[in-house]
Amino acid sequence: MNKFAFIIHPIEIADIYRKFPLLEKLPVNLVEKTFKYLPPMKVSVIEGVKSPWGEVQGFFIACPLTTRQLLTLPEEVSIKKIIEAVKVAEKLGAQVVGLGAMTSVVGDGGITIAKNSNIPVTTGNSYTVASAIDATLKAAALMDIDISNANVAVLGATGSVGSVVARLIARKCKSLMLVARNNERLSKLARIVMYESGIALEVSCESRKVLCKADIIISVTSSMDTVINPEDLKPGAVVCDVARPRDVSLAVQKLRKDVLVIEGGVIKVPGPVNFNFNFGFPPGLAYACMAETMILALESKWECFSLGRELSIAGVEEIKTLATKHNFQLAGMRSFEKTLTNGQISRIKNEVIMKREKEYNIVASI
Question: In angstroms, what CA-CA distances link 162 with 15, 128, 294?
Fold first, then answer.
């Protein structure tokens, strides 16, 4: 039986506290410092991943660094810890390993890690792109938004995921707004998108100037903090939050009943899968980056599929085809880690209608 492994890590300190509640009594810095010196370890065995073409077994391997540590420690320290986690996967017999959450962001997008590995490494970003776009299109349709006439914004547009999302979504929308911190990289991406699609394009390093105009937002930053707040969004907007930690503030859920926020890249895994570990999803569901690693194992495709800062459109299309072959499917809509029902979507649409009617009446009375 083919085997795979997937590297996970605590997104925030609360994840450590859930596993070890007694540590809540200790200072955060002390807990993080202690975990910094712990070796990576196997967390669980993943069983029951089964498609019509075969069955695979997997392992969750924990890298004990939080998001903040992975992004603020010296790069060589973080990369060394991730490589140690890959070595654990090798010893368990894994034939391919996926980098989860911020382990795929540190350094050069997995290239250095792959060079120090005896098995193929993937970030899973190609399938993340494919599933994020599919989820966005589905959510837009549910909100009666015609994407061919919509203004779309991509936050974190110059990253490995964001740049390919931008190039692919540009084929479908009326106008596109790209947001990132590096103006030079933004300009380079803009030239590529304009050459490929010819659509109206706007670039900005200031997200608030862009978000208020967007009908659809796909957010894929690697920020440690939220970047989308209640006051940033127009009524009726659809936001696909692909980032972990999330880009959308929890305040949006509480204060903006007139916008639809969905999680991108949530996949239903084929077979009676048992992860033997609770990472916050209902049974049978996984992130798209996890699913990509499973797909490569099912396909016996032993190669570094998604690496570096520049993904290929061909790679996104290929992994989407393989996902269909092995019966991986986009899961139902989820929002803020909970299932989104048709009734909730209807209430959001009604809220938008009422708000627009109120605005119309105010204008008409002037």
Answer: 27, 10, 23
